[in-house]
Amino acid sequence: KTYSLYDDVDLEQLVNEMNSSMESVYSTQADTALLLNNGHMHSPHNHHQVHVHAAYPGHGQGHRRHTPPLPTTSSPSRERLRHSQPMHIQAVRCLQEEQQLRPASLPAIPNPFPELCSPAGSPVLRNCKPSSKAAKKNIVKVWSEDGAGKVVEIPADMTARDVCQLLVYKSHCLDDNAWALVEHHPILGLERCLEDHELVVQVQASMSSDSKFLFRKNYAKYEFFRNPLNFFPEQMVAWCQESDGSIPQSQLLQNFLNSSTCPEIQGYLYMKEPGRKSWKKLYMFLRRSGLYYSTKGTSKEPRHLQLLSDLEDSNIFTIITGRKLHNAPTDYQFCIKPSKVRGDCKELKMLCAEDEQSRTCWMTAFRLLKYGIVLYQSYNIPQQRKSNLSPFTAPVRSVSENSLVAMDFSGRTGRVIDNPVEAQSAALEEGQTWRVRGRRLFVCLPVIHRTQVWFHGRIMREEAHKMIIQQGQVDGLFLLRDSQSNPKAFVLTLCHHQKIKHFQILLCEEDGQVFFSLDDGTTKFADLIHLVEFYQLNRGVLPCKLKHPCTAVAL
Q1: Nearest-CA neighbor of 422 among 412, 413, 410, 439?
Q2: Which Gene3D superfamilies does the annotation name (predicted)?
């Protein structure tokens, strides 16, 4: 008997019918066992047939009703063949009959794992299966300052900050949030630091085959957020001239970051004429809509303004080939390169500023007007990490350090010094002893400073200039090198107010001991490490303290 899903089924009657069907199956199994005991041949398919009938009680009951009893006079092989032949039941038929046997009045048992029954629409399985885009890895090769390269495999959504963190981890460098990934074009002579939020794979897709990524420090990446007035002179900011007064630092940055305001940088720039080596001096305006130049003096009227380049599809680069190649009027060159241009020099907008401060102002304003609040968010990420650390008003001392006591081992047995005055004098005497030992150690090991990250050995003056410029001309950026003019001396190269200065470190002798000094022997140090540590805490004769070591990392 079949039931439709829309019939009103009596549950008690259905259960009785199913019980009667099971009894008929058991009786069929008993008859078959009796035939086997009477000497008939046993077929291995009989049990399979019984199980099929038991699984579908309706079929088993109907089969027993229509099967005649075994005759004693007929051929036994023919009867055995009929009973041992299994019944083929299609899967579709089984599902249909199961649906027919299920009463509509009974609630269906909910499946506790429905997502496993439908892999196509399963959110769990869909999330577990990696997409082709996410699973695809991209090969990126990054070069260091010493010419060594490292190949990294990154996903498509990895930013420049993430790649720098990966390289810092692999190279065991100090993570001071000053590392940057540099897009370098050797044929064009251009390079720029990638913003922390930029996707490395997308940038690599727009680069030519000869271009590469460099891994170096850039201390000036977010320096304009700390000292904005040093980056934006009042004579170049339009609203400062209109207000006839100085503007607060906070208001200066808000005008750049707020999309509703219209900041403007103005001033003279040299522009290289297309297809020529001649340069033309023009008065230019940098706005959110792009870089314009005036065709009539310093006029701001729209009819006198010509669009030189937009900001959305362009990036600003520093020219590293020098002024002689392009016959530039000054050394402070930069250029605007469209993102789609790879190796065509005709599409480049070559520009030149009067001094380093003007060039820094134009390039910084270009970044701020293009990216806006995204730059400030990238700057705040390491600042938030620092703020999450628990602040301590005093340095934490260990338990063993708190339990230290002054001891006197001058006699046969040691004794604890209870008198604080005596303990202090003993500490001073011990310090003098260690200073003498340090001087003797220096005589034995005069090259201990060569292991420091700020010492760069025998490099030329021009190379030191180049390294300072590449790592950001911020106050306190320094390096030490061997002197080219005096083989026994050293040179401290220091950046202050975007100007690079050099100070010679001379050796002086006193009582048979050798010292290093920056001020003709007034302040003497046993080695260069002590000298650097002193001027990191004290300005002394220098224009500023030593803050940022110029580092060359080896990948």
Answers
A1: 410
A2: Phosphatidylinositol 3-kinase Catalytic Subunit, Chain A, domain 1, Pleckstrin-homology domain (PH domain)/Phosphotyrosine-binding domain (PTB), SH2 domain
Cβ count near 182 (within 10 Å): 19
Asked if the structure places residue 290 within a domain, the reply is yes
- Least Cα distance to 185 among 361, 345, 366 occurs for 345
Look at the chain and report how many structural domains it folds into.
Answer: 3
Q: What helix, strand, coil percent values describe the chain, rounded to 5?
A: 40, 20, 40
Q: Are 551 and 453 in contact (CB under 8 A)?
A: yes
152 strand-pairing partners? 140
Residue 464 lies in a domain: yes
- Pull the structure tokens for residue 534: 């002193």
CATH number at residue 187: 3.10.20.90
pLDDT in tens, 496-520: 988 999 999 998 888 778 889 998 8
Please say which residue of 328, 352, 380 terminates a domain: 380
Q: Is residue 402 part of a domain?
A: no
> Three-class SS of residue 514?
strand
Neighbours of 379 (CB within 10 A): 17
Tens of pLDDT, residues 192-204 = 999 999 999 999 9
Higher pLDDT, 479 or 424: 479
Annotate 255-291 with DSSP letters as a single string: HHH-TTS---EEEEEEEEPTTSS-EEEEEEEEETTEE
Q: What is the 3-state secondary structure (H, E, C) of 36-48?
A: HHCCCCCCCCHHH
375: left (phi over 0), alpha (psi -120 to 50) or beta: alpha
Residues 304 and 373 in one domain: yes
> What residues contact residue 118 under an 8 Å CB cut-off, 6+ apart?
none
Give the lowest-confidence range in 27-31, 153-157, 225-229, 262-266: 27-31
Q: Do 212 and 227 fall into the same domain?
A: no
Domain boundary among 362, 380, 398: 380
pTM of the model: 0.63
**Same domain? 268 vs 353:** yes
Listed range (287-291, 314-318, 395-399) with the worst mean pLDDT: 395-399
Do 187 and 333 fall into the same domain? no
Same domain, 198 and 264: no
Q: Is the Cβ–Cβ distance between 249 and 274 less than 8 Å?
A: no
Contact 238, 168 (CB under 8 A): no
Range of the domain at 274: 223-380
Q: Quick one: CA dihedral 455, 456, 458, 464, positive or negative?
A: negative
